[in-house]
Amino acid sequence: MMIVEAHGLGLRTRRGWVFRGVDLTAEAGELHAITGPPGSGRTSLLLALAGRFRCNAGSLRVHGPAALGQVAGVHEPDPALTVAEHIEERLLLLGPVPRRRRQLVPVAALRTRRAYRQNALATALAGAGFTGDVPLDPNLRGRDLTPVQRQVLGLVLATLCGPSLIVADDVDAGTDAGERAWLWAALARLADQGYAVVASARAVEPGTRAIVHRLGDPALPARVDPAAPPPAVPDPDPDTDTAEVTR
User: Fold this and answer.
1) What is the pLDDT of residue 48?
2) Which range of residues forms the domain containing residue 12?
3) Nearest by Cα to 112 from 95, 124, 97
4) Chain-centre distance for alpha carbon 71
5) Tens of pLDDT along 187-228?
6) Is residue 171 domain-resident?
7) pTM for the complete prediction?
8) Confidence band for 81, pLDDT divided at 50, 70 and 90
9) By CB count within 10 A, which of 76, 140, 218, 241 is most buried?
């Protein structure tokens, strides 16, 4: 099922283009990576795909709700809350899934909401496709989380909303090679749960199963070669299932 359809997408401000000419189509179950150096517009593109602001060039259609993972300065853990409290608070705020939307919400997300009082963290992690090696202590507070833990918590919280699209920013920031490999594998498992996942990074780890889009490079998207080295607005209505921006 097609989730994201972006054609010639661009954002221009008085200072110039933030990004332009982006063509991206993402289906449920696919992992896409937006790569490029700092300042290339990666974060702005992710926020546009998630419906957080409007682009002024090209067209964008997103079928189903979108959710943010970790996006620095926009969507981050509360420093005073523990991991478990983040999950419990999110589930309480979401409440039950409306009957008219249940067929659009992954079964794992529905089960998590029903079971949160019994074992919220374990159920939420399982619903997001994370295995027993997940580096997340339920008693850690937001201020004490490592970059990897912040990403994992952001992804888990995103799945609780029952979205079609999940975006996560700078997934390689502050991580070493082993952590990056683990995170990209976790993102691939998340896509295997049926979500369309779009993540940004400076580069993609070798062996990552993803479709890569390098901003400013018309030769991409292209699937990553496992043997190749890595290359040197107002919030939407949560009940809206289709968002569209046209030139």
Assistant:
1) 93
2) 1-24+41-63
3) 124
4) 9
5) 998 999 899 999 999 989 888 889 999 886 544 453 443 444
6) yes
7) 0.76
8) very high
9) 140
The verdict on residue 240 lying in a domain is no
- Let me know whether 144 and 166 are in one domain: yes
First-last CA distance in the chain: 24
Instruction: Answer yes or no: do 15 and 112 share one domain.
Output: no
Mean pLDDT of the 41-49 span: 92
